[in-house]
Amino acid sequence: MLGVTKLLCGTATASDVMRYGRSSKELPSNLLSFSRDKRPVVVWNMTRTCNLSCIHCYSESKDKAYEGELTTEQGKKMIDDLIEFKVPTILFSGGEPLMHPDIFELAEYAIKGGLRAVFSTNGTLINEDNVKRIKDVGLSYVGISIDGTEEVNDRFRAKKGAFREAMNGIQTCLKHGMKVGLRFTLNKHNYPVLDEVLNLLEEENIPRCCVYHLVYAGRGTKMMEADVTREEARKAVDMIFDKALYFKEKGITKEILTVDNHCDAVYMYMRIKKTQPERAEEVLKMLQWNGGASSGIGVADIDNLGNVHADQFWKHHTFGNVKERKFGDIWTDTSDPIMAGLKDRKKLLKGRCGKCEYLDVCNGNFRVRAEAVTGDIWESDPACYLTDAEIFNRI
Question: Domains in the chain and their CATH numbers?
């Protein structure tokens, strides 16, 4: 995850981070990515059940019950293990977490145990009653997915009216003083409306936006051909950077981030070297602290059955199950060569990634995407849009 506003616009500095000793226990949530110890943020896909059937869904969810999901008591035991391991944040996801009958009981349990808890939802089920419960139990943030303008979004969500329902969810959160943000997954079908989606931040008074690059997993594997070209990805990131700077120049407080393509960080550094050379050294240091790709290090996933994965896109490879072993024991067990490799991957990388001069910033980008395209976890990530001249000469 790249904090575009923090780094490009300078709303966070190295001294802000050092004030807390770069400890994940001490850092506020907005600076957690710069921690020294990299305790994982855990995504819990607490249920696979969902009221929608989005064509890019990594969990291939449907509106039906799934057998074998963690019970509420098993969920609480897992949460206890996360607290013991000093995980800083749990992200309740799905499927659709609001379809889980005990979502609020489990969220409250996590928060009372000391975890920061956030919520990832399609937003269509948020209403006056449950947003009050979301706020009352102490959830810190709600991320709501939008896939484009109304027509584009509803086609992706396979439901007419999904856009208006999600926007109503955002506005209901704002009305009740709940921190909320927009989540957008970039692909060639919604690339033409990216600017219109970014404009929603100002038009609808939405304080935060995360733009995700497409990862080929779940139903998303069928969308490899629907990914943007490398040229389009570069233009899209330029547009995102320009919008963040626009908000800064206008004095409009917004937070913009990009997710799942860590060459964005290198591209940002190159831009800062040209346009803000006085800040380049500090930004490079913070990007190195961020560490780039964090699957198996600073991000973990626990699926609805209790299986532990390197992130939410690695459902095809499991390191263990929280019904049988504590999360911390699973996460620190490097007897699995993939877990060991992800934790120390630089020496294993091949192709362009293996030769890149910016591994200290990118950390080899997204391994699951490389595997999906080449069959080799350690091959180059095909989504890197930087040129050979840029990555081999550290310009």
Answer: 2-335 (3.20.20.70)
